[in-house]
Design goal:
Strand content: 25-35%
Number of domains: 2
Order of helices and strands: HHEEEEEEEEHEEEHEHHEEEHEHEEH
Largest sheet: 9 strands, mixed
Number of helices: 9
Distance between the termini: 43 Å
CATH superfamily of the largest domain: Zn peptidases
CATH architecture of the largest domain: 3-Layer(aba) Sandwich
């Protein structure tokens, strides 16, 4: 079940640039499906299902990595200072449990939160910059921390955990994008049994949370005509998000009609109209829900793939609703992941030699 695979992957730490354990779990599932695979030098896991040579080739991809931290300094006291890796929300960091990954094993720790009894009125409402925070892992000296395997550069993630919520929903670490990884594995299992369809390259990519470009070697090797990227859609069904759209957890799969980062990079995706039509028509024919999202502040690695090759790549972001992005406890409904898997499978089956990507009216 997709829910079980999601839980498995959420409990594996895999900071951007340190995805090996997640990749190993994914390769084990591909072996179980009987699908050949390869891993490139960056760590992207690739599998190809050959199909109709006359149809457009498709790459479906999602990222394995998660955001987190790197150990920046080991204090003489044994406390650890962190460098942020990815879009970590500083306001949500104090008192969070973390996992320090070392060559000698994983070590739990906690991001310190100043004792309430010593907090001044001014401090109560101030967000502490990440550079001023520190991790207490119980060490009493730098030598003790180093003896346990902690080094400058050691990866640190939120403490992996999964919480079962009412209605079958799940909360936990790295739903972004272990949920996408679970969907792509479920899709791979279906495609391994298909009898027809286009050539499909499946990619579980690295370093999306770092610079969104880790997938590029895999994209260049596949040289697809179409790229479908699986990631979260911002759920807008909580009081703080209602003004942002009409995407709700439990409402089924969706597509992004517009994304634009606007912070640090002028990049985003305006999807190819043929792909928008494909998913709209597929959802209608299969009687599946299809939610629609358009947001500023969101960016995926499809932003860079669309400019690859001499003709460009037709791109579309497809996804699942998720609450509380980039926090230590994100929320998803596995039923939405099942819906997305079915939608992707049905859409791929409709990509025939007659499917046109021409930008003409």
């Amino acid at each position: 079940m997709i829910r079980d695979v999601l839980r498995e992957l959420m409990l594996i730490p895999g900071l951007a640039g340190h995805e090996e354990r997640v990749a190993e779990a994914i390769r084990a599932h591909l072996d179980r499906f009987g699908l050949a695979h390869r891993t490139d030098r960056l760590g992207n896991v690739n599998a190809t299902i050959d199909g109709d040579a006359g149809a457009p080739t498709v790459m479906v991809f999602t990222h394995m990595d998660q955001l987190g931290f790197i150990v920046r300094k080991i204090e003489d006291s044994g406390l650890l200072r962190l460098e942020r890796l990815g879009g970590v929300p500083e306001r949500a960091l104090p008192a969070q449990a973390v996992l320090i990954c070392t060559g000698r094993g994983d070590l739990p720790g906690v991001i310190a939160n100043k004792s309430h009894h010593a907090t001044t009125p001014e401090e109560k409402y101030r967000v502490v910059p990440y550079a001023d925070l520190y991790v207490d892992a119980g060490f009493s000296s730098r030598a003790e921390a180093e003896a346990a395997g902690v080094r400058i550069g050691s990866p640190v993630t939120y403490l992996p955990r999964v919480l079962d919520l009412a209605g079958g929903r799940v909360a936990g670490t790295s739903v972004d994008d272990r949920a996408g990884c679970a969907v792509l594995l479920a899709l791979a299992e279906r495609l391994a049994r298909r009898s027809a369809g286009p050539t499909v390259h499946l990619v579980w990519s690295v370093q999306e949370e770092f610079n969104l470009r880790g997938v590029l070697p895999a994209a260049r090797a596949a040289n697809p005509d179409i790229a479908l990227q699986i990631d979260l859609l911002l759920a807008t069904d909580t009081p703080d998000m209602t003004h942002r759209g009409d995407v709700r957890v439990g409402g089924g799969a969706g597509i992004s009609l517009y994304s634009f980062h606007g912070r640090g990079t002028l990049n985003g995706v305006i999807p190819h109209p043929a792909l928008v039509r494909l998913f709209e028509e597929t959802a209608e024919a299969a009687k599946l829900p299809l939610q629609r999202s358009a947001n500023t502040g969101v960016l995926t690695d499809a932003s860079y793939i669309q400019f690859e090759g001499t003709e460009g790549v037709a791109c579309l972001d497809v996804g699942f609703p998720m609450r509380y992005s980039h926090s230590a406890l994100e929320v998803v409904d596995p039923a939405d992941l099942e819906s997305l898997t079915t939608l992707l499978d049905a859409a791929l089956a409709r990509i025939t030699p007659a499917f046109s990507l021409a930008r003409t009216t």
